[in-house]
């Protein structure tokens, strides 16, 4: 396999040739990728089953169909997006003239994915880089080894390395990769690694998008439909065995409905996964022993209300509900990223808002309520990446919405047109007319010229 320096040299030469710039080339490559996803759907599902015990339906819907839908949308609209955008030119300073924004690709970009959705979290930013006209180096997670091998196979057999190349390696080799000069870096993963990526990028002055995570609160007030809330929260929390950066990380339930809601959560878990989730083909497993041990440690303090069972040999941890935890406990200090759901309560809206504001900005926030005042207060006073009202996770499925974090939960956003914009440099161009030349701005500067400029700017 060629070294990364050779690949980057190939890609720089290929990019400078202008081959990737025509919109027709971009559409051909995107269409080829879409065809690959469609024809290899079964292979993708099989790899995800080996890595995470994902059922065929969960794998196909969350990691294949969602990408194909976004691809279809991009293919349909790309010709419109690549056109220069006309913007206003303020009078009189920019008169006579016109202003436009041109979208140009960065060059050779690095896309780094995560192990929890190892296929989708590579493919979704990859299609953004492709539609913008870039060359791409892809780094899938080495933790999800079967999916990594499949990605290597699909890309190496269908795309030339000067256009798209897959780099595999352990963390040490990734450090060497980051020493190279890329034109853009897109990373999905944990906050700590995100800091390392940003530090490496800063040395090269390379722009970045960081899709990270955090402690996503899920609020359930006394006015909501508790049955709907239970179904939607259980589905979102235990999807992929909780290994989802968008999953509800903890519940904030109004004290008056806590006990009733806990019973509904228990009943819903049983309805979804049976009395023993280990026997359910719809329930995933933990990715490896390292994360299994980490999640088990998080469960050490607090009261287990439901679940709490595990099997190290099978990397199984049951859907688990907890209470009796404090903000000093590990389960509330770090992102859980597993099938453990701590339940806290609040009494007043002021207490709730104060609690939310006292913690770092989350990637997501979910609110179940019929109280419009509470909804508007949280929307206007609490900062977070994105979220749902009366649902969970579904903001990621809408490619018309930008997906990204804020503060420690991420930098930048993508999906749909936002992916095209993320991987494009917006070049501003002002064109002055040669038919007339206004001399007000030229020396010598006089009080009379200033007076006329002031009058014209008031028009």
Would you write up a description of this structure?
This protein has a seven-stranded mixed beta sheet with strand order 10-13-14-9-8-15-16. Helix 3 (41-52) packs across helix 4 (56-81). It is built from 16 helices and 18 strands. By secondary structure, the chain is α/β, with parallel strands linked by helices. It is globular, with a radius of gyration of 25 Å. The mean pLDDT is 96. The chain has two domains: 4-212 and 412-426, Aldehyde Dehydrogenase, Chain A, domain 1, CATH 3.40.605; 217-402, Aldehyde Dehydrogenase, Chain A, domain 2, CATH 3.40.309.
Short description:
With 459 residues, the protein is an alpha/beta fold.
End-to-end Cα distance? 65 Å
CATH topology of the largest domain: Aldehyde Dehydrogenase, Chain A, domain 1
Question: pLDDT average, as an integer?
Answer: 96
What is the CATH architecture annotation of the largest domain?
3-Layer(aba) Sandwich
CATH superfamily of the largest domain: Aldehyde Dehydrogenase, Chain A, domain 1
Share of residues in strands: 15-25%
| Total domain count | 2
Structural class: alpha/beta
Main sheet characteristics: 7 strands, mixed
Question: What is the molecular shape?
Answer: globular
Portion of residues within helices: 40-55%
Strand tally is: 18
């Amino acid at each position: 396999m060629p070294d990364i320096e050779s690949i980057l040299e190939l890609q720089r030469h290929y990019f400078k040739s202008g081959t990737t710039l025509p919109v027709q080339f971009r559409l051909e490559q995107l269409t080829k990728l879409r065809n690959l996803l469609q024809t290899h759907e079964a292979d993708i599902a099989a790899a995800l089953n080996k890595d995470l015990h994902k059922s065929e339906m969960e794998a196909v819907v969350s990691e294949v169909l969602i990408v194909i839908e976004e691809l279809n949308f991009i293919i349909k609209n790309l010709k419109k997006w690549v056109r220069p955008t006309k913007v206003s030119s303020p009078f009189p300073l920019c008169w006579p003239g016109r202003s436009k924004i041109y979208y140009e690709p960065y060059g050779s970009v690095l896309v780094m994915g995560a192990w929890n959705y190892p296929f989708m979290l590579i493919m979704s930013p990859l299609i953004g880089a492709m539609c913008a006209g870039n060359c791409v180096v892809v780094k899938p997670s080495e933790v999800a080894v079967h999916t990594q091998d499949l990605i290597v196979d699909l890309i190496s057999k269908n795309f030339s390395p000067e256009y798209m190349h897959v780099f595999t390696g352990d963390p040490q080799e990734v450090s060497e990769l980051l020493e190279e000069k890329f034109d853009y870096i897109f990373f999905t993963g944990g906050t700590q690694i995100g800091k390392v990526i940003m530090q490496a990028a800063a040395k090269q002055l390379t722009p970045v998008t960081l899709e990270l995570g955090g402690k996503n609160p899920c609020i359930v007030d006394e006015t909501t439909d508790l049955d709907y809330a239970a179904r939607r929260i259980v589905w979102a929390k235990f999807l992929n065995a909780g290994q989802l950066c968008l999953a509800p990380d903890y519940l904030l339930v109004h004290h008056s409905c806590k006990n009733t809601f806990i019973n509904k959560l228990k009943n819903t878990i049983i309805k979804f996964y049976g009395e023993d989730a280990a026997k359910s083909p719809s329930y995933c497993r933990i990715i490896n022993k390292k994360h299994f041990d980490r999640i088990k440690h998080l469960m050490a303090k607090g009261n287990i209300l439901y679940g709490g069972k595990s099997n190290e040999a099978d990397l199984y941890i049951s859907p688990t509900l907890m209470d009796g935890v404090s903000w000093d406990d590990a389960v509330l200090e770090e992102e859980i990223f597993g099938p453990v759901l701590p339940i806290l309560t609040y009494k007043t809206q002021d207490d709730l808002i104060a609690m939310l504001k006292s913690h770092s900005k989350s990637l997501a926030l979910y609110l179940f309520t019929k109280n419009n005042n509470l909804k508007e207060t949280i929307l206007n006073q609490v900062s977070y990446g994105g979220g749902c009202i009366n649902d969970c996770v579904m903001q990621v499925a809408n490619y018309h919405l930008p997906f990204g974090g804020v503060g420690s939960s991420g930098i930048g956003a993508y999906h749909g047109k936002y992916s095209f914009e993320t991987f494009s440099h917006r070049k501003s161009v002002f064109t002055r007319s040669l038919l007339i030349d206004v001399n007000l701005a030229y020396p010598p500067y006089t009080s009379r010229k200033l007076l006329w400029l002031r009058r014209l700017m008031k028009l």
